[in-house]
Design a protein that fits this description.
The protein is an alpha+beta fold and 140 residues long. It is built from two helices and eleven strands; from the N terminus they run βββαββββαββββ. The strands form four sheets. Strands 1-7-6-5-4 form a five-stranded antiparallel sheet. A two-stranded antiparallel sheet has the order 2-3. A two-stranded antiparallel ribbon has the order 8-11.
Length: 140
């Protein structure tokens, strides 16, 4: 899973389209991606196919701020439900924080049912496998 900018061009079956233009026409699903100090973290999510079956564009939308969108390119060797991709995206936030603090260990992630082929790119050149690393200070 790789975060991309809103002006990223996604190769769709019709023609290359900007990620934010695709998001405007999306079929949104409200899915919780875990708990926070203030309760459940619920966001609106949309998934778009590209011309390559193993690549899709996942868009996260803020419930309270409709303009607050985040865009992720997902590489999945086989079709993957949006709920699983949301779970991977939620774990990506933990990795972002860990990369910023340098707090990485080799304890396996608590992602049950998510295979090791899902990778996270949180900074240029810094990738990690979900099945192989976990933040030391993250709560289960």
């Amino acid at each position: 899973m790789l975060a991309v900018a809103r002006d990223h061009l996604a190769a769709t079956p019709r023609a290359p389209r900007r990620a934010d233009v695709l998001a405007a026409a999306g079929a949104w699903h409200r899915i919780s991606c875990g708990n926070s100090a203030k309760g459940r973290r619920g966001y609106d999510w949309a998934l778009f196919a590209t011309t390559r079956p193993e690549i899709s564009l996942l868009v996260r939308g803020s419930v309270t701020r409709p303009s607050g969108l985040a865009f992720y390119l997902c590489h999945t060797p086989q079709p993957t439900p949006i709920a699983v991709l949301v779970k991977v995206a939620a774990t990506r936030w933990c990795l972002e924080e860990c990369f910023q603090t340098g707090n990485i260990s080799t304890v396996p992630f608590g992602l049950r049912g998510v295979q090791g082929e899902f990778a996270c790119q949180s900074r240029p050149g810094a990738a990690t496998q979900f099945s192989g690393r976990r933040c030391r200070n993250s709560a289960r």
